Amino acid sequence: MSAFRKFDEFNWRLRYTILLYSVIFSPLQLLGQISLEDDTVKINEVVITRNKIITEPAGFKKTIIDSATMSDYSNTNLSEMLSGKSMIFIKSYGMGGVASPSFRGTRASQTLVNWNGLNINSPMLGQSDLSLIPIGLVDDVHIYYGGASMQLNNGGIGGAINLETKPTWEKGTLVSLNAGMGSFGEYSGLIKVKMGNAQIQSVTKGYLLADENNFRYLDNENGSPFVWKTRTNSQVSQQGFLQELYLNNSDNVASARIWYQSSDRHLPPTMLSTDENERQFDESLRIMLNDNLTRSKSSYSLTGALLMGRLNYSDKLSMNNSRSLSETLVMKAERESHPWNYINLKINLSDELCTVKTNLYDRKVNRNTSTLTASMERECIDKFGITILLSEILLDHKFLIPDFSTGLQFRLIEGKEYFLKASISRNSRIPTLNDLYYPYSGNADLRNEYAFTYELTYTMDQKISSLFNTKAELSIFHSTIKDMIQWNPLNSNFWTPGNINRVNSTGLESEVSMAYSVNKFTASLYVGYSLTKSFPEISDSPGDNSVGKQLIYIPINQANSSVRFTYGEFYTSLTTSLTGLRYTTKDDLAYLPYYIITNSITGIKLPLHNTSIDFSLNINNLFDYNYQSIAYYPMPGRSYFVKILFQLFK
So where are the chain's domains? Predict the structure, then answer.
């Protein structure tokens, strides 16, 4: 099989990198025998803890999706959760369709999507389809804004999303069954089995999804009078599993993870077409091995991964039948030391060898990228903190101009959580393989993108009383993106990429949250708003009518709000999101109007001796709003979803 081809197919730099890792990390000790206890003790609950408190890098903005939100969205995908619970704009083709993220006026390919620190974006498309990532397989979602993404990798000019899976190191067994059904023929199921103790942990997760997506929509694009139609050729089925194994031997933690998933989707036509012959099959296999060793004031990490992705697309009408297989081998080594109090020094060396076989290109394509990153951080424990990061990329025997990021953080009031943060970064991104080699429209002369990003943030975390807490954050950002790559339509069916000489993206983000708790009652409120102006300032094309105009599909205004109440075992929440108008042509003459979507969740948890049962009802698009996220692709109206979660603790 292609996944197990001999090492002599790899180029000289990969061999050199592996040898270098072996020399640097020869002191690493592998796990020996682990003593396991045979007795079992019943527990009433499992408490999830972290080995290390994860803080945002000094001077930069980073957020973590809370556990209550993760639980509410456990039967949905990443795109649905982020569209209602973050300032990230999700461009969606509708239920079952492709969903891509956009940070701060940037494109989807300028957003990193990582799995435990490894980039899982498609090397061909340069992005990830968030509709294919089930929330139920993920433990944490970390969001890095702007230059903070360089803590993970280069290329995330807008930001990064890191999906984490982790052990609990609690003795016992947890079995979780999560089943649901809803409108438009939707059925889903998720199972989790966690077992182990303080030395060994095994986590198994599997899911299934089937959805007809046969919703009714108002056709307002084919003249008057408007008529109601039923969406067809939109069914989707997904399945997958994630197996994790963790071994803990005092100062050494080793892990192995395998994540497989597949999706079979019928792609519906636009509202202007009757073509119902498109179909797409996605399949991915991700294998990761990791070993972490702690010695005195230093820690070492060695990671190896194989990332495989298959995409088959067919259109019977046009006789289009594309087959693509990508394979990426990743080797990553890291050393972190703490020579003085609150000072962290980190050096990271990674190598990615990517091979793509597809009938779209006229040849097999290989790309080798090596990255060396060094950083120093002083945590903001007292008055100030600082982060300095330098990164160098070697792309197929060619060194790129180094990237960097620097952040400063000041505590405004002694002993209080009032901070002022400032940062500057230079981040570069290389063209995707489709940008370069896509048939008839690829552009081999594309230049690498790079961006200078400036950010100023004020944060406040104030405990008003033992019952009431409030947080607030205000960020102002500006990015100047040189040679930004954008695909522009030449006609309704043909798009081609090109460099825009200079693009400016400027805006602000504000968030306020409050939490109140007394006895059995808790209440929380969140309000967020973002303003983004993203437009070409200078173009290489004479007479380019996009200069000074908002980039297509980038909303200027976006807002979210949510309120959640719990009383005893009962809970309810209401989430409202506003997406401003989006221009659909680069001259800003055509646009999609704004839309406001409200979703609600109501449920009750019934704890028993060693089990618990959670019933909930989700109502999406509560007010039955008729809207489009992408032109001519209708979104569903009001829908219902009933979920039951059964958990057994032993």
Answer: 55-226+241-649
